[in-house]
Amino acid sequence: MQCAELQQHIDDRLDDQLSEMECAAMDRHLEHCADCRGAFAEEKAMREALMDMPVPDASIGFAARALRRAAAANAVSHHPVRNRAFMGGFAAALVAGIVLWFVSGVVGPNGELATSQPQLAELSISLYETRRVKLSFNTPENMEKVRVSLVLPEHVELEGYPGRKQIAWFTKLHKGSNVLTLPLSALRSDKGIFTVKIGTGEEQETMQFYLNVAKPGFSTLEAPKSA
Amino acid sequence: MKNIFSIWQARKNSNSDFEELVAPHIDRLYRLGYRFSGTRHDAEDLVQELLVKLYPRSKELNNIEKLGPWLSKSLYHLFIDQARRVTNSPVALAEGIGIELEAVACVNAGPDEYMIRQQQFARLENALFTLNFDQRTLVAMHDMEGYTLPELSSMLDTPLGTLKSRLHRARASLREQLAEK
Ligand SMILES: [Zn+2]
Fold first, then answer.
1. What are the sequence ranges of the domains in chain A?
2. Core-most of A140, A172, B33, B73, by most CB within 10 Å?
3. CB-based neighbours (< 5 A) of ligand 1, an ion
Protein backbone atom coordinates (compact mmCIF):
# COMPACT_ATOMS: atom_id res chain seq x y z
CA MET A 1 0.00 0.00 0.00
CA GLN A 2 1.32 3.42 -0.98
CA CYS A 3 1.16 6.51 1.25
CA ALA A 4 -1.22 8.35 -1.07
CA GLU A 5 -3.59 5.42 -1.22
CA LEU A 6 -3.55 4.99 2.53
CA GLN A 7 -4.25 8.63 3.19
CA GLN A 8 -7.16 8.49 0.78
CA HIS A 9 -8.77 5.87 2.97
CA ILE A 10 -8.28 7.27 6.47
CA ASP A 11 -11.83 8.59 6.35
CA ASP A 12 -13.18 5.19 5.40
CA ARG A 13 -11.27 3.57 8.20
CA LEU A 14 -12.66 5.96 10.77
CA ASP A 15 -16.15 5.51 9.35
CA ASP A 16 -15.94 1.70 9.55
CA GLN A 17 -16.15 1.40 5.81
CA LEU A 18 -13.11 -0.86 5.30
CA SER A 19 -12.99 -4.63 5.26
CA GLU A 20 -10.88 -6.54 7.76
CA MET A 21 -8.30 -7.19 5.09
CA GLU A 22 -8.07 -3.56 4.14
CA CYS A 23 -7.69 -2.61 7.77
CA ALA A 24 -4.89 -5.08 8.23
CA ALA A 25 -3.05 -3.76 5.17
CA MET A 26 -3.42 -0.25 6.52
CA ASP A 27 -2.07 -1.24 9.92
CA ARG A 28 0.98 -2.88 8.34
CA HIS A 29 1.77 0.31 6.51
CA LEU A 30 1.18 2.53 9.53
CA GLU A 31 3.60 0.46 11.57
CA HIS A 32 6.58 1.57 9.56
CA CYS A 33 5.48 4.92 8.07
CA ALA A 34 5.65 7.90 10.40
CA ASP A 35 4.13 10.25 7.80
CA CYS A 36 0.97 8.25 7.50
CA ARG A 37 0.83 7.70 11.25
CA GLY A 38 0.90 11.47 11.62
CA ALA A 39 -1.85 11.98 9.06
CA PHE A 40 -3.96 9.28 10.67
CA ALA A 41 -3.50 10.73 14.15
CA GLU A 42 -4.37 14.20 12.92
CA GLU A 43 -7.58 13.09 11.28
CA LYS A 44 -8.56 11.02 14.29
CA ALA A 45 -7.92 13.96 16.63
CA MET A 46 -10.08 16.22 14.49
CA ARG A 47 -12.91 13.71 14.53
CA GLU A 48 -12.68 13.38 18.27
CA ALA A 49 -12.72 17.13 18.67
CA LEU A 50 -15.83 17.32 16.47
CA MET A 51 -17.54 14.69 18.58
CA ASP A 52 -16.60 16.56 21.73
CA MET A 53 -17.71 19.99 20.59
CA PRO A 54 -19.93 21.23 23.40
CA VAL A 55 -23.62 21.90 23.00
CA PRO A 56 -25.01 24.30 25.59
CA ASP A 57 -28.06 22.98 27.39
CA ALA A 58 -31.39 24.16 26.10
CA SER A 59 -32.99 26.76 28.32
CA ILE A 60 -34.59 25.39 31.46
CA GLY A 61 -37.90 23.68 30.78
CA PHE A 62 -37.51 24.03 27.03
CA ALA A 63 -38.96 20.64 26.05
CA ALA A 64 -42.10 21.02 28.13
CA ARG A 65 -42.57 24.59 27.02
CA ALA A 66 -42.08 23.72 23.36
CA LEU A 67 -44.69 20.97 23.58
CA ARG A 68 -47.13 23.23 25.35
CA ARG A 69 -46.67 25.94 22.76
CA ALA A 70 -47.12 23.49 19.92
CA ALA A 71 -50.44 22.43 21.40
CA ALA A 72 -51.52 25.99 22.15
CA ALA A 73 -50.43 27.26 18.75
CA ASN A 74 -52.60 24.70 17.05
CA ALA A 75 -55.53 25.16 19.39
CA VAL A 76 -55.67 28.85 18.54
CA SER A 77 -56.89 28.14 15.05
CA HIS A 78 -60.38 27.58 16.47
CA HIS A 79 -60.48 31.26 17.28
CA PRO A 80 -58.00 32.98 15.02
CA VAL A 81 -56.35 36.04 16.42
CA ARG A 82 -57.49 38.66 13.99
CA ASN A 83 -59.81 41.47 13.56
CA ARG A 84 -62.97 39.93 12.23
CA ALA A 85 -64.13 43.19 10.72
CA PHE A 86 -61.59 42.64 7.97
CA MET A 87 -62.52 39.10 7.08
CA GLY A 88 -63.52 38.51 3.49
CA GLY A 89 -64.51 35.34 1.70
CA PHE A 90 -61.25 34.65 -0.01
CA ALA A 91 -59.19 36.01 2.80
CA ALA A 92 -60.84 33.66 5.22
CA ALA A 93 -59.72 30.75 3.11
CA LEU A 94 -56.24 32.15 2.82
CA VAL A 95 -55.47 32.23 6.48
CA ALA A 96 -57.15 29.68 8.63
CA GLY A 97 -55.23 30.28 11.77
CA ILE A 98 -52.85 32.83 13.07
CA VAL A 99 -50.61 32.24 15.95
CA LEU A 100 -48.10 34.39 17.67
CA TRP A 101 -45.37 33.32 19.92
CA PHE A 102 -42.04 34.38 21.24
CA VAL A 103 -38.93 32.35 21.25
CA SER A 104 -36.66 31.89 24.25
CA GLY A 105 -35.38 34.98 25.99
CA VAL A 106 -37.15 35.94 29.16
CA VAL A 107 -40.42 34.11 29.15
CA GLY A 108 -43.51 33.91 31.24
CA PRO A 109 -44.42 30.71 33.00
CA ASN A 110 -47.16 29.80 30.57
CA GLY A 111 -45.53 30.20 27.22
CA GLU A 112 -46.41 33.84 26.49
CA LEU A 113 -48.67 33.00 23.66
CA ALA A 114 -51.03 35.54 22.26
CA THR A 115 -54.09 33.36 22.20
CA SER A 116 -57.63 34.07 21.26
CA GLN A 117 -59.18 36.97 23.05
CA PRO A 118 -62.38 38.85 22.50
CA GLN A 119 -60.42 42.04 21.87
CA LEU A 120 -57.17 42.48 20.04
CA ALA A 121 -54.41 40.29 21.32
CA GLU A 122 -51.71 42.08 23.18
CA LEU A 123 -48.02 41.38 22.93
CA SER A 124 -45.62 42.74 25.48
CA ILE A 125 -42.02 43.42 24.68
CA SER A 126 -39.34 45.03 26.81
CA LEU A 127 -37.26 48.06 26.12
CA TYR A 128 -33.68 47.51 24.94
CA GLU A 129 -34.30 43.93 24.00
CA THR A 130 -35.03 42.39 20.62
CA ARG A 131 -37.94 40.00 20.74
CA ARG A 132 -38.60 37.66 17.92
CA VAL A 133 -42.29 37.55 17.37
CA LYS A 134 -43.57 34.71 15.29
CA LEU A 135 -46.63 34.69 13.13
CA SER A 136 -47.91 31.48 11.75
CA PHE A 137 -50.25 31.38 8.76
CA ASN A 138 -52.08 28.24 7.86
CA THR A 139 -53.13 28.06 4.27
CA PRO A 140 -55.18 25.32 2.65
CA GLU A 141 -53.06 25.36 -0.51
CA ASN A 142 -49.77 26.58 -1.96
CA MET A 143 -49.85 30.23 -2.95
CA GLU A 144 -47.23 31.47 -5.38
CA LYS A 145 -47.27 35.19 -4.79
CA VAL A 146 -48.62 36.68 -1.65
CA ARG A 147 -47.97 40.18 -0.46
CA VAL A 148 -47.09 40.61 3.17
CA SER A 149 -47.09 44.08 4.61
CA LEU A 150 -46.38 45.36 8.06
CA VAL A 151 -47.39 48.62 9.63
CA LEU A 152 -45.51 49.21 12.83
CA PRO A 153 -46.54 51.51 15.64
CA GLU A 154 -44.32 54.53 16.22
CA HIS A 155 -42.54 53.12 19.22
CA VAL A 156 -41.42 49.83 17.70
CA GLU A 157 -38.92 48.98 14.97
CA LEU A 158 -38.14 45.96 12.90
CA GLU A 159 -34.51 45.08 13.36
CA GLY A 160 -32.53 45.93 10.26
CA TYR A 161 -35.13 48.48 9.11
CA PRO A 162 -34.55 51.51 11.27
CA GLY A 163 -37.08 54.28 10.82
CA ARG A 164 -39.34 52.21 8.53
CA LYS A 165 -42.93 52.05 9.66
CA GLN A 166 -44.26 50.29 6.58
CA ILE A 167 -42.56 47.29 5.06
CA ALA A 168 -43.95 45.08 2.33
CA TRP A 169 -42.70 42.24 0.20
CA PHE A 170 -43.87 39.31 -1.87
CA THR A 171 -43.47 35.77 -0.75
CA LYS A 172 -44.65 32.24 -1.35
CA LEU A 173 -46.91 30.43 1.07
CA HIS A 174 -46.80 26.70 1.34
CA LYS A 175 -49.81 24.59 2.08
CA GLY A 176 -50.00 24.20 5.84
CA SER A 177 -48.10 26.28 8.36
CA ASN A 178 -45.96 29.18 7.29
CA VAL A 179 -43.98 30.94 9.94
CA LEU A 180 -42.81 34.50 9.73
CA THR A 181 -40.23 35.70 12.23
CA LEU A 182 -40.15 39.36 13.10
CA PRO A 183 -37.31 40.67 15.23
CA LEU A 184 -38.90 43.64 16.96
CA SER A 185 -37.24 46.15 19.20
CA ALA A 186 -38.83 48.90 21.20
CA LEU A 187 -37.77 52.51 20.99
CA ARG A 188 -39.69 53.65 24.04
CA SER A 189 -42.39 52.44 26.35
CA ASP A 190 -45.80 52.92 24.84
CA LYS A 191 -48.71 50.98 23.46
CA GLY A 192 -49.76 50.91 19.85
CA ILE A 193 -51.33 48.81 17.15
CA PHE A 194 -49.26 46.57 14.92
CA THR A 195 -50.88 45.58 11.65
CA VAL A 196 -49.97 42.65 9.44
CA LYS A 197 -51.68 42.33 6.09
CA ILE A 198 -51.42 39.36 3.87
CA GLY A 199 -53.09 38.93 0.54
CA THR A 200 -52.99 38.70 -3.22
CA GLY A 201 -53.76 42.23 -4.27
CA GLU A 202 -57.52 42.02 -4.66
CA GLU A 203 -58.24 40.63 -1.27
CA GLN A 204 -56.35 40.57 1.89
CA GLU A 205 -56.48 39.47 5.44
CA THR A 206 -55.58 41.92 8.14
CA MET A 207 -54.42 41.03 11.59
CA GLN A 208 -53.93 43.58 14.25
CA PHE A 209 -52.67 43.43 17.75
CA TYR A 210 -51.38 45.70 20.43
CA LEU A 211 -47.68 45.98 20.99
CA ASN A 212 -47.18 46.98 24.52
CA VAL A 213 -43.77 48.13 25.63
CA ALA A 214 -43.53 48.23 29.38
CA LYS A 215 -41.44 50.76 31.22
CA PRO A 216 -38.14 49.33 32.42
CA GLY A 217 -38.34 48.27 36.05
CA PHE A 218 -41.71 46.62 35.65
CA SER A 219 -40.16 43.28 34.94
CA THR A 220 -41.72 40.32 36.64
CA LEU A 221 -38.28 38.93 37.36
CA GLU A 222 -36.85 40.12 40.61
CA ALA A 223 -33.22 41.00 40.86
CA PRO A 224 -31.34 39.17 43.60
CA LYS A 225 -31.28 41.16 46.78
CA SER A 226 -27.95 42.61 47.71
CA ALA A 227 -26.47 41.75 51.07
CA MET B 1 -65.20 27.76 3.51
CA LYS B 2 -64.97 24.01 3.20
CA ASN B 3 -61.21 24.22 3.51
CA ILE B 4 -61.21 25.98 6.80
CA PHE B 5 -63.79 23.67 8.14
CA SER B 6 -61.73 20.61 7.28
CA ILE B 7 -58.65 22.14 8.86
CA TRP B 8 -60.53 22.88 12.02
CA GLN B 9 -61.92 19.39 12.10
CA ALA B 10 -58.45 17.93 11.72
CA ARG B 11 -57.24 20.06 14.58
CA LYS B 12 -60.05 19.01 16.83
CA ASN B 13 -59.16 15.37 16.38
CA SER B 14 -55.50 15.78 17.16
CA ASN B 15 -54.72 14.26 20.49
CA SER B 16 -52.25 14.36 23.30
CA ASP B 17 -50.37 11.38 21.85
CA PHE B 18 -48.20 13.99 20.30
CA GLU B 19 -46.42 14.77 23.50
CA GLU B 20 -45.80 11.13 24.29
CA LEU B 21 -44.46 10.45 20.81
CA VAL B 22 -42.25 13.45 20.43
CA ALA B 23 -40.99 14.23 23.93
CA PRO B 24 -38.27 11.54 23.97
CA HIS B 25 -36.74 13.05 20.83
CA ILE B 26 -36.66 16.71 21.74
CA ASP B 27 -33.23 16.68 23.29
CA ARG B 28 -31.66 15.08 20.27
CA LEU B 29 -33.49 17.45 17.94
CA TYR B 30 -32.27 20.40 19.94
CA ARG B 31 -28.68 19.16 19.72
CA LEU B 32 -28.98 18.71 16.00
CA GLY B 33 -30.57 22.12 15.66
CA TYR B 34 -27.69 23.57 17.58
CA ARG B 35 -25.18 21.87 15.29
CA PHE B 36 -26.97 23.30 12.28
CA SER B 37 -27.50 26.83 13.47
CA GLY B 38 -24.72 27.45 15.94
CA THR B 39 -26.78 29.17 18.63
CA ARG B 40 -29.04 27.95 21.39
CA HIS B 41 -31.62 30.50 20.46
CA ASP B 42 -31.86 29.40 16.84
CA ALA B 43 -31.80 25.76 17.82
CA GLU B 44 -34.77 26.20 20.17
CA ASP B 45 -36.49 28.25 17.56
CA LEU B 46 -36.05 25.56 14.96
CA VAL B 47 -37.31 22.78 17.20
CA GLN B 48 -40.26 24.90 18.32
CA GLU B 49 -41.26 25.55 14.75
CA LEU B 50 -41.01 21.88 13.90
CA LEU B 51 -43.29 20.95 16.80
CA VAL B 52 -45.86 23.58 15.87
CA LYS B 53 -45.94 22.19 12.35
CA LEU B 54 -46.08 18.55 13.33
CA TYR B 55 -48.62 18.88 16.10
CA PRO B 56 -51.67 18.42 13.85
CA ARG B 57 -50.08 15.29 12.38
CA SER B 58 -49.81 13.12 15.48
CA LYS B 59 -51.84 10.33 13.90
CA GLU B 60 -49.39 10.16 11.05
CA LEU B 61 -46.43 10.24 13.45
CA ASN B 62 -47.92 7.30 15.26
CA ASN B 63 -47.48 5.18 12.15
CA ILE B 64 -43.87 6.06 11.49
CA GLU B 65 -41.63 3.15 12.22
CA LYS B 66 -38.44 4.98 13.10
CA LEU B 67 -39.63 8.29 14.41
CA GLY B 68 -36.19 9.51 15.56
CA PRO B 69 -34.55 9.61 12.12
CA TRP B 70 -37.79 10.83 10.58
CA LEU B 71 -37.90 13.78 12.96
CA SER B 72 -34.24 14.54 12.36
CA LYS B 73 -34.89 14.54 8.65
CA SER B 74 -37.85 16.89 9.11
CA LEU B 75 -35.71 19.22 11.19
CA TYR B 76 -33.08 19.19 8.47
CA HIS B 77 -35.63 20.10 5.82
CA LEU B 78 -37.08 22.81 7.98
CA PHE B 79 -33.60 24.22 8.44
CA ILE B 80 -33.09 24.22 4.69
CA ASP B 81 -36.44 25.97 4.22
CA GLN B 82 -35.48 28.59 6.75
CA ALA B 83 -32.16 29.17 5.03
CA ARG B 84 -34.05 29.63 1.77
CA ARG B 85 -36.45 32.02 3.43
CA VAL B 86 -33.49 34.10 4.49
CA THR B 87 -32.91 34.88 0.83
CA ASN B 88 -36.60 35.53 0.12
CA SER B 89 -37.77 37.68 2.96
CA PRO B 90 -36.40 41.09 3.82
CA VAL B 91 -37.11 40.33 7.44
CA ALA B 92 -35.09 37.20 7.52
CA LEU B 93 -32.32 38.97 5.65
CA ALA B 94 -32.04 41.53 8.36
CA GLU B 95 -32.01 38.82 10.91
CA GLY B 96 -29.64 36.39 9.30
CA ILE B 97 -26.53 38.49 9.52
CA GLY B 98 -23.81 37.43 11.87
CA ILE B 99 -23.27 34.22 13.68
CA GLU B 100 -23.20 34.25 17.43
CA LEU B 101 -20.65 31.94 18.90
CA GLU B 102 -22.30 31.69 22.25
CA ALA B 103 -20.94 28.25 22.95
CA VAL B 104 -17.37 29.43 22.94
CA ALA B 105 -17.89 32.94 24.19
CA CYS B 106 -18.39 31.89 27.78
CA VAL B 107 -14.89 30.73 28.54
CA ASN B 108 -14.17 31.04 32.22
CA ALA B 109 -10.71 31.37 33.60
CA GLY B 110 -9.57 27.87 34.41
CA PRO B 111 -6.84 25.31 34.09
CA ASP B 112 -4.60 25.73 31.06
CA GLU B 113 -5.75 22.50 29.55
CA TYR B 114 -9.34 23.66 29.68
CA MET B 115 -8.42 26.95 28.03
CA ILE B 116 -6.52 25.23 25.25
CA ARG B 117 -9.44 22.94 24.65
CA GLN B 118 -11.84 25.86 24.49
CA GLN B 119 -9.58 27.57 21.99
CA GLN B 120 -9.51 24.43 19.89
CA PHE B 121 -13.28 24.33 19.91
CA ALA B 122 -13.46 27.98 18.96
CA ARG B 123 -11.13 27.44 16.01
CA LEU B 124 -13.01 24.38 14.94
CA GLU B 125 -16.30 26.20 15.22
CA ASN B 126 -15.02 29.04 13.07
CA ALA B 127 -13.71 26.55 10.54
CA LEU B 128 -17.09 24.80 10.47
CA PHE B 129 -18.83 27.99 9.48
CA THR B 130 -16.55 28.40 6.48
CA LEU B 131 -17.94 25.18 5.02
CA ASN B 132 -20.81 25.40 2.61
CA PHE B 133 -24.30 24.59 3.76
CA ASP B 134 -24.39 20.96 2.61
CA GLN B 135 -20.97 20.20 3.99
CA ARG B 136 -21.65 21.76 7.35
CA THR B 137 -24.96 20.04 7.94
CA LEU B 138 -23.46 16.74 6.86
CA VAL B 139 -20.46 17.08 9.18
CA ALA B 140 -22.90 18.10 11.92
CA MET B 141 -25.01 15.01 11.48
CA HIS B 142 -22.27 12.48 10.84
CA ASP B 143 -19.13 13.62 12.62
CA MET B 144 -20.73 15.47 15.49
CA GLU B 145 -24.05 13.80 16.19
CA GLY B 146 -23.02 10.33 15.14
CA TYR B 147 -25.62 9.46 12.51
CA THR B 148 -24.18 6.61 10.45
CA LEU B 149 -23.64 6.78 6.71
CA PRO B 150 -26.42 4.27 5.91
CA GLU B 151 -28.80 6.19 8.19
CA LEU B 152 -27.96 9.45 6.46
CA SER B 153 -28.20 7.88 3.05
CA SER B 154 -31.84 7.01 3.64
CA MET B 155 -32.59 10.16 5.66
CA LEU B 156 -31.26 12.47 2.97
CA ASP B 157 -32.14 10.34 -0.02
CA THR B 158 -28.56 10.50 -1.20
CA PRO B 159 -26.33 7.64 -2.36
CA LEU B 160 -23.71 6.49 0.13
CA GLY B 161 -20.86 7.26 -2.26
CA THR B 162 -22.01 10.84 -2.71
CA LEU B 163 -22.19 11.35 1.03
CA LYS B 164 -18.72 9.88 1.48
CA SER B 165 -17.11 12.14 -1.04
CA ARG B 166 -18.96 15.19 0.32
CA LEU B 167 -17.74 14.39 3.80
CA HIS B 168 -14.26 13.78 2.48
CA ARG B 169 -14.13 17.20 0.87
CA ALA B 170 -15.65 18.86 3.92
CA ARG B 171 -13.03 17.40 6.24
CA ALA B 172 -10.22 18.31 3.88
CA SER B 173 -11.47 21.85 3.89
CA LEU B 174 -11.73 21.83 7.69
CA ARG B 175 -8.16 20.60 8.00
CA GLU B 176 -7.01 23.31 5.64
CA GLN B 177 -8.79 25.98 7.66
CA LEU B 178 -7.32 24.72 10.89
CA ALA B 179 -3.81 24.56 9.46
CA GLU B 180 -3.99 28.17 8.30
CA LYS B 181 -3.98 29.65 11.76
ZN1 LIG C 1 2.85 6.17 4.40
1. 3-52, 62-226
2. B33
3. A 3, 33, 35-36
